[in-house]
Amino acid sequence: MRIAELTPFYRSTVGFDRMLDLLGQDSRPAEPEDNFPPYDIERIGDDRYRITMALAGFAPDELSVIAEPNLLRAEGQKSDDEGDRNFLHRGIARRGFRRQFDLADFVKVASASYENGLLSIELERELPEAMKPKRIEITTGAARPRAESERRPERRLESVGAS
Length: 163
Description:
By secondary structure, the protein is mainly β. It is built from two helices and eight strands, in the order αβαβββββββ. The strands form two sheets. The protein has a four-stranded mixed beta sheet. It has a four-stranded antiparallel beta sheet with strand order 2-3-8-7, with no helix packed on it.
């Protein structure tokens, strides 16, 4: 298991791997509320990622996941159904949250699931066919097509002196 401690900029972006290798500075200041809810971002394949958020105490109907172009937003709002409970200590977070993740081009939300207090959001990068690398066939010299400028005009031989 590898764990890399990254700046908050790194933690809120998905699919920008090459760009983040080149950057060493955080582009935005950290906010105190940026640490709730806690979450992990995991690469699960060449073009697949998983964001897992710890949301103990939330019901599935209190959560929403919204995908926009280049942006993923997860939100939660607790309902006030405490009744007449008398707490001596209240350490379980019950506040609402709104967490945004910047997504690289062509990164799409594949699915979202909620189990045992963990919200898992699967992401996948899908490059359009026109942008995928293409293997170019290499031909030998005899089969090489000539460019227009390389082609010689055909000359017809006419018989001289034939009348």
